[in-house]
Specification:
The structure is a homodimer.
Chain A lengths: L8 E14 L2 E8 L9 E2 L1 E4 L6 H13 L6 E7 L10 E11 L2 H9 L2 E5 L10 H16 L4 H5 L3 E3 H12 L5 H11 L2 E8 L7 E6 L1 H9 L7
Parallel strand pairs in A: 1-6
Antiparallel strand pairs in A: 1-2, 1-4, 2-3, 2-7, 5-6, 8-10, 9-10
The first copy, chain A, binds a DNA duplex (27 and 27 nucleotides) through α6.
DNA sequence: TCAAAAGTGTTAGTTCTACACCCATGG
DNA sequence: CCATGGGTGTAGAACTAACACTTTTGA
């Protein structure tokens, strides 16, 4: 007699809530489904976990399959498991969220695969509980951004302070004072000023900075408080 | 041709990391397994999700089956899904954590079922990845306590400020200044002082308070910051 | 009457907020 | 030479942290 033999089994899916920061706006990556079920409808990027992979492996694989994106910082949001969440099948989904800094390369990849960015205040109706997932993920990102320098890790390797500020403004959905923002950020002592300037944003140009992972890890261990 | 027919299915388990606050200490509820696999070993309270219930329904049912406890505030921690996490079977587990205020009734229930409390700094070796889950849950509780009045919600309906302080001290693992703690807590304006005193803690007795759920909900909506 | 816990006020230091102006540059 | 965004200093308000004493009462 095997303990497991009479236990139920489930399809396990992963759905990825991918936020992109593009043109000073926060956007959601939405996929136009080319397969059944729900062919033609809009949905998050998602698929089934395979028996030989972990949920997070699956989310990496699925994101790559659907968008070509790799090395994306993705975190588990939570599981969605209502009995009737998918009317077709009993399936639980482990939602994952990510925030990426959109550039031309990424946009090209995404377009090729038929995915599309929607501004966060203008997300269309998605299948199943995907709108709910999106709302939950937004809340989570706002929350996380309060105690982790989520912004830094997600910007390109080199970034300017005005860009970083725009990112936080997009996440918090409010304007921040540039003097205070700058002071605050620099006080954490986890970014390093470079010699170079980025002149795409203005004539004067803004100095580029890079994230200091070593210092950040040290700070993290001593349990510091990150609050913009 | 059915999209789902060639997809893999998984056993889905729930493991409950139940922290108890008892005698001014934070403790973990551990179960002495009476069934295979791992009979005789120590583990968290956990079992399999059934096809007709959601993960959170399962966690409520499982907690009750194993401990008799009901109406416990339980939250999802995260999923554990490494391919080799359970050497016997491919099974993913959705860990849930809770923090409860232990009293005699609870202790009796728990003892009857053969479960046992261990002080948090003295947790024995548990099966599988249960020690990892415990560590992750502890971190989560510390984190959550920073921005939610987790303490209030988990104390009995009526509680004293010294007791609340002890709870926060247990969670943060450090002493707090009673003057400052009191000021801070009262400044949130989400607890109501009662006429009664609790004299179990001292001769003088400490005034009882109750949590003001209505005010708290309002505050929450306006996105307030809770920080002890 | 005294031990033990409950309860209170103040001050110095820190951090936050709000605000206005100069800088560097390409067009 | 000027429009545009980048960059800085400061003062008042709010908050935090650190501290010592009084109150109540049962044993």
């Amino acid at each position: 007699m095997d303990l497991y033999s009479n236990k139920d089994k489930f399809y396990v899916a992963v759905d990825c809530i991918i936020f992109g920061f593009d043109n000073e706006k926060l956007k959601l990556l939405v996929f136009n489904r080319k397969i059944d079920p729900f062919i033609g409808s809009l949905s998050l990027i998602g698929s089934f976990v395979k028996i030989g992979e972990s949920v997070s492996d699956a989310s990496i694989r699925i994101l790559k399959e659907f968008t070509g994106l790799e090395n994306v910082y993705m975190k588990e949001l939570k599981t969605y498991s209502s009995v009737d969440r998918d009317p077709g099948y009993r399936c639980i989904s482990v939602a994952q969220y990510a925030l990426i800094y959109v550039n031309d390369t990424i946009n090209k990849l995404v377009e090729e695969k038929g995915a599309k960015w929607y501004e966060i205040d203008n997300v269309p109706e998605l299948i199943l509980d995907h709108n709910e997932m999106t709302i939950d993920a937004l809340k989570r990102i706002e929350q996380i951004a309060r105690y982790k320098p989520i912004g830094f890790e997600l910007l390109p390797k080199k970034f300017t302070l005005p860009k970083l500020q725009k990112l936080y403004e997009a996440i918090y959905r409010r304007k921040l004072d540039p003097r205070n923002f700058r002071k605050k950020i620099l006080s954490f002592d986890i970014i390093i000023k470079l010699e170079e300037k980025d002149r795409t944003g203005s004539k004067k140009g803004a100095f580029l900075y890079k994230f200091d992972h070593t210092k950040y890890k040290k700070l993290q261990k001593s349990g510091f408080d990150f609050e913009i």
